[in-house]
Specification:
Elements (H helix, E strand, L loop, with lengths): L2 E2 L2 E2 L15 H14 L5 H27 L5
Antiparallel strand pairs: 1-2
Helix pairs in contact: 1-2
Amino acid sequence: MGQEKSRRVWPDHADHVLTTRATSAQLVRWHQAARINSMKPHLGVFLARAADFYAARLQARLELAQRLEKGGKL
C-alpha cells in the first residue's frame, strides 16, 4: 500500500512500481495538471489516471477502426 506523507494514495491491490524520467518542463506541467485535477494532488496518482485514460481512449479508437473496417456503422 503506497504512503505519501502518512496518507494512503494507492489502492490496496497496487503492487507495481514504475520509474518515470521527465524533462524539467514536463515535470512542471505534470505537477500543474495534477494540482488542477485534484484538491489533494499527487503526481503518481495523476500519471496513473492519465495513462489509464489514454489506454482506454486508444482501445476505443482501435475498436471503432475495426468496426469501420468490417463495414459497420458509427
